[in-house]
Design goal:
235 residues; alpha/beta; Spore Coat Polysaccharide Biosynthesis Protein SpsA, Chain A; eight-stranded mixed β-sheet; two-stranded antiparallel sheet; 7 helices; 23% strand
Length: 235
Amino acid sequence: MDSLISSTAIITGAGAGLRMGGEVKKQYRMLDGIPILIRTLEPFFSSSLISNIIVTAPEEDTEYCENIIHQYFDPAPKPFLVIAGGMERQDSVFGALQQCPQDTALVFIHDAVRPFISIELIEELYDLALKEKAVVPAARLKNTIKQVSGDYLEHTLVRDRLVQVFTPQVFDYKLILDSYIKAYNDGYISTDDAALAEHFGAKVRYHLTGDLNIKITDEWDLTLAHLIIEKNIII
């Protein structure tokens, strides 16, 4: 592994979590007695490759979010910052990018409700990002994918050329910042950071991993997450 450089992890947790319903936002919901956000943060706090952490939270939750982090990581093993997110995910990440320390070389952008990543995955993505400048974790598709038009199937997509992508997506800091600036200048909007890098003209490497790096967005996802922990499934 190359000598360590400064890496900032941006954890995007500014969503309202409306699809799960209830009074508690999904990032703060308990997963086997621990908030989902805390499970997500743990490998980033534990990894020696991550220098700083920035968490985006709903504006009304910033103090609450910071208090939860202090509750589980006190003293915090590395610097972290909680900032208010924007109207859209893209706005939240852009705001976080502008708060990164000046010496940041790599940025890990990760969903706050993807609690099943490992330190090993962080290491693999770090090594690839040093060489490629942009890398995302991905998995092969198991099901046939169809494009539709109205109420009818239009055609079948070639599955061998398709992957599903996850986070953390890792980028050279200047590359992803420039990609965001170009996207705003062009009026280009996406919920996927790699799409902005692609729009900028960058080549993005994919890294095949398992497909249980799930994003908890509804009750079924939460049930699956409980099963992953109960069965001690290695991701």
